[in-house]
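notes to self, project folder thing:

trying the whole complex as one job this time. last attempt i did each chain seperately and stitching them together was a nightmare. four parts in total, labels are on each line so i dont mix them up again. if this works i'll redo the older ones the same way
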Amino acid sequence: MNFKGTLPTLILEALVHEPSHGYRIAQRIKERSEGVLDFKEGTLYPALHKLENEGLVESYEGMEKGRPRRYYRITESGHGTLSKDRAEWRELSRAVTTILGEA
Amino acid sequence: MNFKGTLPTLILEALVHEPSHGYRIAQRIKERSEGVLDFKEGTLYPALHKLENEGLVESYEGMEKGRPRRYYRITESGHGTLSKDRAEWRELSRAVTTILGEA
DNA sequence: ATCTATACCTCGCAATCCTATGCATAGGAT
DNA sequence: ATCCTATGCATAGGATTGCGAGGTATAGAT
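result (full assembly):
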């Protein structure tokens, strides 16, 4: 079960603390939401490529346990977008919650 | 600006209080969200047709100011769906808010 | 030796929403 | 009188988002 439109924001947020690679980003989102949010690989990788294309994240080749991994780090521009996305989420979620009834 | 996936739920919610027609439902959603949520007609009408197709709302021909209007009322089944949708919204929005940081 | 988890990727499909467009009427402005 | 705007319903084309299925490959456990 997922929320359309929130994935790019969740990815950026995951990269604020430290650079990471796709698979781990997905795990992190799942864990931090206690299993509620569970984006699939077929969704995550294209989303990462798009963010890179837009210059919101940068990737570099990393090594872990003798295997190559594609690491992503958030850019200056990405921080700006994340900040706006957070504000937008707050505004929209408050609006929906107001209508649907809180608690 | 809108939230993908919440429209059917918002429509059902709007019909709980009283039957209404498309144009007014859209206005109501916009007003109750203080302009934040603003679904377009090209989105709303197909959504209503789909809800009717699924048996969650029923429509009937109404008259107002000498002009015909298509009124919708929520069904038993629609109430059940609304209840589940509310719960799902709570779960998902809580998950996203937890990750993106509250307040 | 095989299975599972890790790790990355692409393709086709469905759902959702937007813009643009069309039609039609009522009421106010010019 | 005519035009514009708001009301009211509807469809078509396109973009975006996400999913499932499939492909490739390595490391570690059984």
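what i see at first glance: Helices of chain B lie at 7-17, 22-32, 41-53, 76-100.
need to look closer tmrw
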